[in-house]
Design brief:
Blueprint lengths: L3 E6 L14 E3 L9 E6 L2 E9 L2 E3 L5 H17 L3 E7 L6 H5 L10 H19 L4 E13 L2 E4 L14 E4 L2 E4 L5 E2 L3 H13 L3 E2 L7 E2 L2 E12 L2 E11 L6 H4 L3 H25 L11 H7 L5 E9 L6 H14 L12 E2 L23 H5 L1 H4 L68 H4 L7 H21 L12 H15 L4 H17 L3 H12 L6 H30 L5 H24 L26 H5 L6 H11 L3 H4 L6 H13 L14 H6 L4 H10 L8
Parallel strand pairs: 1-5, 1-16, 6-15, 6-16
Antiparallel strand pairs: 2-3, 3-4, 7-8, 7-11, 7-14, 9-10, 12-13, 14-15, 15-17
The structure holds adenosine-5'-triphosphate (ATP).
GO molecular function: ATP binding; ATP hydrolysis activity; microtubule binding; plus-end-directed microtubule motor activity
Family: Belongs to the TRAFAC class myosin-kinesin ATPase superfamily. Kinesin family.
InterPro entries: Kinesin-like_fam, Kinesin_motor_dom, Kinesin_motor_dom_sf, P-loop_NTPase, RuvA_2-like
């Protein structure tokens, strides 16, 4: 079954009234509902391009209509175990967020709140009709991809790390490591969660949209329908993509430009993926951006609806044309109409359990028939109404019934799954395919037996890999000895699983280990020592001989222990000593410290003449308010450091935004940039490299000598202490 692409043309906005409307809709001879979008050829206005989609909605379409016709029919399939993906695509300011999220009034609510409302309604009905024998559990995750980094929208922005959440490949799909999953029992609860999370989403005003989404937002709704021992799980993904931007029109400033470049790059990669899929290329460049890595690897194994948002006016002409062309290619992608296998609560080992992190999905692939028919598609199949202008042949494609032979094709490394039982097409259900019989399962080896002329090297490798995986899977199923013993503890079982994966060569243990290391570092940077220790311990499974890791774990344990003891000691002290007693001695230390600083600066000032970049002078106490110029010795030499330099380096090496941002001339943004510069290139190592000299600090991207001078000078400010 193909991706269902529907177009929605938004109304003119107040500032567009009186402007030239160039996008129109039309119906073809067979249906009343418009299915065609018309737009003039920018090079020859007397000629129209015509694009055909499953449905087309003009400015009069209501939120209710879009939901009832395009989204509501997917709900029952979701409850039958099919994954559903609904995404809005279009250039900035065309109505994606309006369509997906919508407004606050009942009538203005968008696809997402309505979808949740429909899901809860159906869930209640199922539970009631089954007299509570069937239960439905709904869990939510919500994240954004901002500047190619993944951030959990259920977490407050202060908790974000610079690098964002890491991605991990898990079989055929990419998962976000460490994403919050929130059980959500009612629509009310959802509304609260969703509203709160949307505050965390990155939006800004641009010239083209007063509340422009600067990120791609992905809401995952996981459904687990349990009847007796059987659990049927499926996921609905509702995605509000950020809009592509022509920066000649946005007049974006520097920061918006960086976001815009990232948005455009990911959308360009999405377009390249779609192009590669429809060209049947062996390599689909989904790894070139996080958004495509997450999306193209999987959300499409089931039902997919793309809502193409368009603006009607001329100022969007080229953007609209480009979106229409993209949508035209997208609708040719076939996705497999396969439901998720139910699992059993007490399933034997070897049967995959379904959870957020291990549901297997598949990359988008074109059907052979689609490419085979590509040339036929170049000519419009649906005659236009009389009087309509003949469309440009190359831009019109028919959406009419095509069928897929892929429904029953087994997924690599997985037992064959049932294809959709929903086969009879009906106008009320746009997702039913044309065949009325359930498709037969096909042996995974059948593909192998047929000679395939002109087969590429990549295809051969792919077949070999599939064969090896099948054999390994078959072998694993034949080996009762590896079934778990009932008394095996969870921890032992986990370790056995990891070991088994490594022996089978099915998992790159190093990659997973590095992910744990990276997370450990992120926790350590945030000062969350206990979580860091847990992550390091998990990483240890992958690097059992790494002595450094042992030392790190040991040190962290000691640190946590010390902290605990310190805490206890402080508690006791607090009970015994008045806090005010501390103040005078603290002040005295500060004064002593200042004196030391001046003495050090005076000594090092003697070496200044040879330093081309920095000049320092011995100063008297009266000159304190002027920034201190630094000697080359101080800049580069780890041994010659004043207490203040040491203090500065210590602060920087905490990699703690809250501390670094307090330095003079730094602020939150620069602090983040400094930490990012410190973390760059460390992903593959298991050691944090400290900055050991001011010169090194000054060489970090975005810092420079002036900033170093300022930061160091600012240490006189008592606020730092
Ligand atoms: N169908 C519609 N009816 C009424 N107003 C609409 C409609 N579609 C969009 N709008 C209005 O147009 C403006 C831009 O819409 P929206 O913010 O949804 O665009 P967007 O595509 O999400 O933009 P960006 O990619 O920049 O986030 C908003 O003020 C929105 O209310």
């Amino acid at each position: 079954m193909g991706i269902r692409v529907v177009a929605r043309i938004r109304p003119q906005q107040s500032h567009e009234l009186g402007k030239d409307v160039i996008v129109s809709t039309a119906s073809n001879a067979e249906s009343e509902q418009p299915t065609l979008v018309k737009i003039p050829n920018p090079k020859n206005e007397s000629e129209d391009f015509t694009f055909q989609f499953s449905s087309v909605y003009d400015h009069t379409a209501t939120q209710q209509q879009i939901f009832d016709n395009e989204v509501s029919p997917t709900i029952k399939h979701l409850f039958n175990g099919f994954d559903v993906t609904i995404f809005a695509y279009g250039s900035t300011g065309t109505g994606k967020t309006h369509t997906m999220r919508g407004g606050k009034t009942l009538a203005e609510r968008g696809v997402i709140p309505r979808l949740l409302s429909g899901i809860y309604r159906r869930a209640r009905k199922i539970v009631k009709d089954s007299e509570r024998e069937t239960t439905v559990e709904i869990t939510l995750s919500y994240y954004e991809i901002y500047n190619d980094k993944v951030f959990d929208l259920f977490e407050a922005p202060e908790k974000r790390t610079l690098a964002g959440l890491p991605l991990r490949d898990n079989g055929c799909k990419t998962v976000v490591v460490g994403l919050t999953e929130r059980p959500c029992e009612s629509l009310k609860e959802f509304e609260n969660l969703y509203d709160q999370a949307n505050i965390n989403r990155s939006t800004s005003a641009t010239k083209l949209n007063a509340a422009s989404s600067r990120s791609h937002a992905i809401l995952g709704i996981r459904l687990a329908v349990t009847t007796g021992d059987e659990v049927r799980t499926s996921i609905a993904s509702a995605i509000d993509l950020a809009g592509s931007e022509d920066n000649r029109r946005t007049q974006n400033g520097k920061e918006r430009m960086v976001e815009s470049a990232s948005i455009n790059k990911s959308l360009f990669t999405l377009a390249k993926c779609v192009e590669a899929i429809s060209q049947k290329d062996a390599r689909i460049p989904y790894r070139e951006s996080k958004m495509t890595r997450i999306l193209s690897l999987g959300q499409n194994n089931g039902l997919t609806v793309m809502i193409l948002n368009l603006a009607p006016v001329r100022s969007f002409h080229l953007d609209t044309l480009s979106s229409l062309n993209f949508a035209n290619r997208t609708k040719r992608i076939e996705v497999r109409e396969i439901e998720n296998e139910p699992v059993f609560k007490q399933c034997p080992r070897g049967v995959p359990t379904v959870s957020g992190s291990n549901i297997r999905r598949q990359p988008l692939r074109p059907l052979a028939s689609i490419v085979h028919n590509a040339s036929a598609m170049h000519a419009p199949k649906n005659p236009l109404k009389q009087g309509d202008k003949q469309a440009k042949a190359f831009s019109v494609y028919s959406d009419r019934a095509r069928h897929s032979n892929m429904g029953s094709r087994p997924i690599r490394g997985e037992p064959p799954r049932r294809s959709s039982p929903l086969k009879r097409p009906s106008p009320a259900d746009p997702f039913m395919s044309s065949s009325s019989r359930p498709q037969k399962r096909r042996s995974p080896y059948r593909l192998m037996s047929r000679p395939q002329p002109g087969i590429s090297k990549e295809a051969i490798e792919d077949i070999i890999e599939r064969k090896v995986t099948d054999i390994l899977a078959a072998r694993a199923l034949d080996q009762p000895s590896i079934a778990p013993q009932p008394e095996t503890s969870e921890e032992v079982q986990r370790r056995l699983d990891l070991l088994e994966k490594r022996i089978d060569g099915q998992d790159d243990g190093r990659e997973q280990g590095l992910t744990f290391l990276l997370m450990a570092k992120q926790h350590a940077v945030r000062g969350e020592d206990a979580s860091a220790l847990r992550m390091y311990s998990l990483a240890k499974d992958f690097f059992p001989d790494n002595k450094k890791l042992d030392v790190k774990i040991e040190k962290l344990r000691e640190k946590i222990q010390e902290k605990k003891e310190e805490g206890r000691r402080k508690e006791v002290e607090l009970q015994l000593v008045k806090p005010l007693v501390i103040e005078p001695s603290k002040k005295k230390n500060r004064a002593e410290q200042d004196d030391d600083d001046y003495r050090d600066e005076a000594v090092h000032g003697q070496n200044c003449e040879s330093d081309g970049g920095f000049h320092c002078k011995a100063r008297t106490k009266k000159q304190r308010s002027r920034p201190v110029r630094l000697s080359s010795a101080e800049l580069g030499n780890e041994d010659v450091q004043t207490p203040r330099t040491k203090q500065l380096l210590e602060i920087v090496n905490t990699r703690d935004v809250s501390q670094i941002r307090l330095l003079k001339g730094v602020g939150a943004k620069k602090a983040e940039a400094i930490i990012e510069a410190l973390c760059t290139g460390e992903e593959d190592e298991d050691e944090l490299r400290p900055v050991t000299s001011l010169r090194q600090l000054g060489q970090l991207r975005g810092v420079g000598t002036k900033t170093v001078e300022n930061m160091r000078f600012g240490l006189q400010n008592p606020a730092i202490e």
